[in-house]
Amino acid sequence: MIEIVFSESAGGSLKAAQTYGKGEWSASSIGMIGTEMDPAGETELRKALQEAEQKEREAWEQAIPLGGNPADVFSFPLALGTGDIAEAGVGSKRLEVLRRLFAPYPENVWRPAADEIYREAVENYQKVKARLAAGETVRIWYSAQPDEMSGLYWFAAQLECWEVPADRVVLVKLEPWVLQEDRVAGHREWGEVEPGEWGKHLSSRKTVSQAFLTGISRRWKELQGEHAVLRAVVDGRLCSVPEDFYDPWIRKAADEQEDEFLESRLIGDVIGKHQLRISDKWVFLRVEKMIEDGKLQILTEAPEDLPVYHRMLKKTGSV
Questions:
Q1: How big is the CA angle at 73 (ends 67 and 78), to the nearest 5 degrees?
Q2: What is the mean pLDDT of residues 64-71?
Q3: Residue 317 backbone zone (phi > 0: left; psi -120 to 50: alpha; other: beta)
Q4: Contact in structure between 74 and 127 (CB atoms under 8 Å)
Q5: CA atoms of 279 and 265, how far apart (whole Å)
Q6: Among 169, 206, 176, CA closest to 193
Q7: Of 37 and 304, the one with more pLDDT
Q8: Cα–Cα distance for residue pair 42/34, rounded to 1 Å
Q9: Which residue(s) pair with 239 in the sheet?
């Protein structure tokens, strides 16, 4: 079975999930960084290591291996929730979007990273197309995170183009909250799911009707025609939204900062505290707009070997 995901982290985790929990558990290396400690501190460290090892053992023993092999996993981390989507397949404009999103990183990092993601996506597109033409079944892992939901709609459009029947398509939607023993765990996207947890979500898999695939494929074409630069999931529906759609949450997080603050802390608060299903890269671009508009001022630049958002900012008034 072909496995489709929409982020690099999800692809790596899913590959590990294929064999995670298979066979006897064996201890792996667990490292911690600290300073020289007194004997009491060493006791605490040993206790922490034992707890971490026990947690890892339990995760392994409770896991449900997915099976398959890494060659079955195809990732399309194309950030389809942002940028122009008018092109069919994996168009060259998508490379421009990826380069813009990776721009906060040093140039010797962002350009090769964006180019490699694009190159692999083009290759994966052709491989998946060939395997589906040979009659294989495909399983698509998605969530309400805009890039993953957009990925689902985009891939449905490819399936329609390739005339793949619905009876060879399986969907697995990530539920935002799941009960794990005595606690409730939440994930915003598949990239946050640990290898030992993927198999537990198989109960959510479902087959779909041809009408469903046709419907979301048609919706993707509608979105393409709207030429918006941003998409969001609103009341469960993928919609075009204005590029300042998330700005109220970003402004709120900025208002909660000190007068002078680290930009990375602001971005972290937007993603963490407000639980928005957007990437840190998009938040960075919106903060850039606030700087251009004079609402924030750059105090210190980031070191050359670190992302741009490791700089100090200052409020110039009401954000």
A1: 150
A2: 90
A3: left
A4: yes
A5: 14
A6: 176
A7: 304
A8: 11
A9: 232
Site of tokens 């906060």: 104
With a CB cutoff of 8 Å and minimum separation 6, the contacts of 277 are 143, 144, 145, 146, 188, 189, 233
Q: Are 264 and 310 in contact (CB under 8 A)?
A: yes
Structure-block tokens of residue 86: 């008018």
Tokens of 162: 């390739």
Q: For residues 120-129, b (16+ Cβ closer than 10 Å) or e, as one string?
A: bbbebbeebb
82 CB contacts (<8 Å, ≥6 apart)? 97, 101, 146, 147, 229, 230, 231, 282
Q: Which two tokens stand for residue 223?
A: 């979105």
**Adjacency order of strands within the sheet including 260-262:** 260-262, 312-315, 296-300
Non-local CB neighbours of 271 within 8 Å, separated by 6+ positions: 278, 280, 283
Q: Which amino acid is at 304?
A: E
Q: Pairing relation of β-strands 312-315 and 296-300?
A: antiparallel
Cross-strand bridge partners of residue 138: 2, 169
CB 295 within 8 A of CB 319: yes
This prediction's pTM: 0.87
- Asked if residue 257 lies in contact with residue 318, where contact means CB atoms within 8 angstroms, the answer is no
Q: How confident is the model over 143-191, as pLDDT tens digits?
A: 999 999 999 999 999 999 999 999 999 999 998 766 555 555 678 899 9
Residues belonging to the chain: 319
State the DSSP H helix or E strand holding residue 45, giving kind and residue range, or none if neither: helix 39-62
Residue 46 has pLDDT above 80, yes or no: no
